[in-house]
Design goal:
Number of domains: 1
Order of helices and strands: HH
Distance between the termini: 34 Å
Number of strands: 0
Radius of gyration: 23 Å
Mean pLDDT: 89
Helix content: over 70%
Number of helices: 2
Largest sheet: none
Strand content: under 5%
Length: 95
């Protein structure tokens, strides 16, 4: 249970850090967009921001997915012997 709690804390920290980075990045982009002198410049910067935002989101989602999968694997490795024992006991009691 302790490993699951630590993993949850790690994932929460990752999400909080991502939120903080995203806020700062969005603020910087907004300032940059306000400074644009033409529509073309605005559109190019907006498209670049959209592309990097999606790439960053996908990378972060992949990282969290891997963290979650590792935590689930650890949890089930520890629970598997208990479940096997319970199933065997259930089979023995039916016989």
């Amino acid at each position: 249970m302790e490993k699951s709690s630590k993993a949850t804390e790690s994932m929460s920290a990752e999400i909080a850090a991502r939120s903080k980075r995203t806020y700062k990045d969005n603020l910087a982009v907004a300032k940059d967009l306000i400074a644009c002198t033409s529509v073309n410049e605005f559109v190019e910067k907006q498209m670049a921001f959209g592309r990097t935002s999606v790439e960053g989101f996908v990378a972060e989602a992949t990282k969290l997915k891997e963290m979650h999968a590792a935590t689930a694997k650890e949890t089930f490795v520890r629970l598997n012997p208990r479940v096997t024992t319970a199933v065997e006991a259930s089979k023995d009691s039916r016989a």
